[in-house]
Amino acid sequence: MEKIDVEELVKFKMLPFDLYNDNGEKLVNAGEILTSGKLLQISQYEHIYKDMPKQQNSGSKKQKRQFDDYTGLEESGSFEKEKPREIIFDKTVNRKSKIKAQAQVDMKSYFATTMFALQDNATQEAIQMIGEIKDKILDDIHAILPDVKYCSQLKLLGNYYDCHSLNTAILSTALGYKLNVDEDYLEKLTKAALLHDIGITKLPKEILEKTVLSQQDTKIFQTHTQIGYKILKHEMGMPEDICLVALEHHENNDGSGYPFKLSGEQISEMARIVGLCSFFDDLTSNRTPTRIKNTKEALRVMLEVGSKKFTPQLLYQFVNMYNYNDLESYDEMAQ
Predict the structure, then answer these.
(1) Counted domains in the chain
(2) How far apart (Å, rounded) are the C-alpha atoms in residues 47 and 300?
(3) What is the pLDDT of residue 22?
(4) Which of 129, 195, 209, 284 is in Cβ range 3.0-4.6 Å of 114 for a Cys bridge?
(5) Could you read off the pLDDT of 257-289 as tens digits, one per residue?
(6) Which of 96, 326, 79, 333 lies closest to 227, judged by CA?
(7) Which range of residues forms the domain containing residue 20?
(8) Residues 19 and 143 grouped into a single domain
C-alpha cells in the first residue's frame, strides 16, 4: 500500500483504487463515486493509504462491476477474440462536407487501423495513432470552421462503427472551439471523444450486429462504459478526465442514464460535451428509435429531449453553433 494525501483525491470523481486507514481497515472501495461528504469523512483520518483492488472475492458489487465485468466476458466464453483479419473500412464520402474527400477516407482508414491495433494488443502503437488522429482533427476543424454553415458539413458518412467515434470527436472539437476552451482542454476533449466508446471493442460481436436488443443484451451493452474506463485507465494509462468520459457519456442531466445515474454537475463537463455530440451523431445516423431525415429534424429532437438529457447551456450552444435550417438528407450527401 502507498500513502496518499486527501488533497490528491480531489482530482478523482471515481476512485481507481481502494483506500485504507492506519489499521488496514478499508475506507472506500475502488470504483465508488467520491462525493464531497465522503471526502470530508476521509479527511478525519491522520493517514490514508491507497491500494489496487484485490481479486473478485473482495470489494463491493460496484467494484466488481467496475473492474471485473470486462474480464468476466472473456472468461465466460460469451464471445471469441477475433482472428487476424484484413482491415476493411467504408469509403463512402460526404460530398457536402467541408472536410476534403481524401481526408475523410484517410481518417476512417487510420481509425479502423487503430482499433485493430488495440484489439491486437498493440496498445502503445494505438496510443500514438490516436494522438495523430487527434492532431489531424484539431488542425482540419480549425482550418474549415469559418466556412462551415451546417452541422452536416462536418459529418463522415458510411458504416456506423467506422464513423461514430470520429464524428463525435469532430463535433466535440468544433463545439470546444465555439466554447473557447483552452488548448490543453481541447486536446483532451478531442482524444476523449475518439476513445469514448473504446469499451465496445470488447463486447460480443453478435450484440453489436443486432438492430433490437433484448433486456439481457442491453445490460451487457451498457457495461461498455465501465469496460472503457478500465481500458483507458489501466491499459492505456490515460488521464482521469479522459477516462471519465468513457465512463459517464451515457449519464443524463436528470439522472436517468447509466452506469451510476449521475445528474447535472455530478457528470464531468467533458463527458457532458462528448455525450451530447455522441447522441447527436446517433440521431443523424438513425441509431436511435427516432428516425430523422436531416439535421434540422435532429436538432428538433435534441430540443424536445432538452434538459432531461443535457444541461440547458450546453444544448443551447450546440443548437446555435451553426444554421438550424439544414434540410439536405444524408442519403443525398453520399456519393
Answers:
(1) 2
(2) 53
(3) 80
(4) 129
(5) 999 999 999 999 999 999 999 999 999 999 999
(6) 79
(7) 2-59
(8) no
